[in-house]
Amino acid sequence: MPATLRDPARTRARILRAARAEFMRHGYSGARIERISRTGRSSDRMIYYYFGSKEALYLAVLEAVYEELGAAESALAIDATKPLEALVELIGFTWSYYLAHPEFVALLSNENLQRGRHVAKSAKVKQLSRPVLGILGTILIEGARQQVFRPDLDVKKVYLTLAALGYFYLSNRYTLSSFLGTDLMRAGEREAWLAEITRVMIASVSVPGTSNHRRTTKTRA
């Protein structure tokens, strides 16, 4: 019996790693099964054996990146009783995760070019929880209770603001770097943008007149 059939879990994982890199570099339309099989030390036949089609393989890759983000969010131990510090920590986590996982940004950008037609077919993605919404919601409720955050905040809108500030910067970093005349991926630029994300987020959720901006600066120091 071939080794690939004796250890299907390892073979499948190797194909998925190769597929993630291929779809990240070339998108769905430009990705080639033969390159995935070569990089994954497999064969076209084995890819179709395990996944059935290119689309099913692509969907498995998308499901995996969503699962990994959810697992990382679930592992967070944030103290919501200190809502300002908790929000700063969540902002830092989100930015750091995007930086550490460029495949997440690239794959989601490509799927948006596809108008989400593949991910919409995934029952698994629809069933996945988004721990970050629960965490953020708890932080905002506690912040409102302590009268440091506005009581009228919509957790989904606050999350959209946070995600947009990080995602747009990274998904458009090449054109923005050219337009602005600076390398946005330099360490100093990345750190400065995290400080700006934090400033904007805290300002947007804070009760007018509070001193949260100064307290946030001290928290990050």
Give a summary of the structure in a few sentences.
This protein has 221 residues and is mostly helical. Helices cover 75% and strands 0% of the residues.
Per CATH, the architecture of the largest domain is Orthogonal Bundle
CATH topology of the largest domain: Tetracycline Repressor, domain 2
Envelope shape: elongated
| Total domain count | 2
Order of helices and strands: HHHHHHHHHHHHH
Q: What is the CATH top level name of the largest domain?
A: Mainly Alpha
- Per DSSP E runs of 2 or more residues, the count of β-strands stands at 0
| Spatial separation of the terminal alpha carbons | 60 Å
Low-confidence stretches: none
Please identify the oligomeric state: single chain
* Biggest pleated-sheet summary: none
Helical content band: over 70%
Count of DSSP H/I helices: 13
Strand residues, percent: under 5%
Structure explained in plain terms:
The chain is built from 13 helices and no strands. The chain has 221 residues and is mainly α. It has two domains: 1-52, Homeodomain-like (Arc Repressor Mutant, subunit A, Orthogonal Bundle), CATH 1.10.10; 62-220, Tetracycline Repressor, domain 2. Helix 2 (8-30) packs across helix 5 (54-74), helix 6 packs parallel to helix 10 (155-171) and helix 9 (131-145) crosses helix 10.
